[in-house]
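Researcher: Sit down with what I've pasted below and flag anything odd:
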Amino acid sequence: MALEDVIRPLRDFDVNDLDLDNVGSWPLVIKAFIWAVIIIAVLLLGYYYHIEGLQQQLAKIQAEEVELKKEFEKKAFQAANLDAYRRQMDEMEESFGALVSQLPSDTEVPGLLEDITNKGLLNGLEISSIDLQKEMSKEYYIELPILILATGSYHDLGAFISAMAGLPRIVTLHDFTIGSKSKDSNQLNMRIIAKTYRYKDGET
């Protein structure tokens, strides 16, 4: 078919002459154009409903691949440094054991009270009372507050507080108040809470 034979029907074609009931009589070029539009529309719809979904799935898999690579690198690093981790764990257990050894047991509390009393007397304090308060259970340890009432000079009180840091067991000082015993006296009254601790070791 010559090109002139294809173009001639287009010259004589009028859009108003299109008859949907007689599609077969439409010019070949018009039918080819309509088929091309239909094919393009089908391809676009296929891309939207199928290929785009595959691309989203691919992006998800690629993101998972990145996470897996990071996890692999982390585990590979841990495996390469396993011996160092084990040594570090041994050191931590040793340090933990040393800390636990500084926590008094029930039977050592009387000795601790005696040590506190001796520290006060050696620093020139008059110990009015040392009273055990109610134990408080924490997640890993038991906290035992001790209320201390003492009288002494400003320097004696300071020396006593400093001496408490030298006790062989862990003792922390909290909530202290200091007041003058009388207007004409350099003696001060001190109220302080000393807290000691013991490891729960499976206690409920």
User: Anything to note?
Assistant: The chain has two domains: 28-80, 103-199. The first helix runs from residue 3 to 11.
